[in-house]
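Recall the central idea of this unit: under ordinary conditions, the amino acid sequence of a chain determines the structure it adopts. In this exercise we apply that idea directly, starting from the sequence alone.
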Amino acid sequence: MRIDIITCLPKLLESPFSDSILKRAQDKGLVQVMVHDLRPFSTNKHRTTDDYAFGGGAGMVMMIEPIDRCISSLKEQRSYDEIIYMSPDGELLTQSLANQLSMKKKLILLCGHYKGVDERVREHLITREISIGDYVLSGGELAAAVLSDAIIRLIPGVLSDETSALSDSFQDGLIAPPVYTRPAEYKGWKVPDVLLSGHEAKINEWRHDQALERTKKRRPEQIKN
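Accordingly, the structure predicted from this sequence is:
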């Protein structure tokens, strides 16, 4: 998989991809993450990527020209499955959507900033808009990192135990059940006996029941869905 991220603040994306699972995925050659600075695609002498909004109002707007030039440059080199704009009013990121995108080969992620992008970008240049939640960030960089993480960890070979992702919360529509590790008793707080029984069928039944109850209590809308 290849993910190209377009941003006017590339340094914000250095840390998320330089450690842990995302770094190992790149080192293994399972994914290639390329961060593109939008400023060199600006045609004015100050390399600015934003301007005042027509009609007035507070805040700046990202200009269409440098975005179009950057996307066009990438598309000249390869075809993309999706060109995604990270937007607070986009399609809500879910585990199901992450699963779908993990099957793609090439993605572009456009990070908004300021008051957002010129609407013509959304109308003509992108194929999908995705939000990581009903709130507003200073820019789309952190959202792009979140989306990338959710996708990359699902690629076969990225996790050392490939079955781990299958038991994640929301993978089967339920929140993951409680988990425990050593010691079996700490300060009088004990691990449930069934987990120490070695009886796989009973353990699986307990985990399913716990996941169901936890989902009903914490995220009842998941049960309805």
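The domain at 169-224 is CATH 1.10.1270.20 (Trp Operon Repressor; Chain A).
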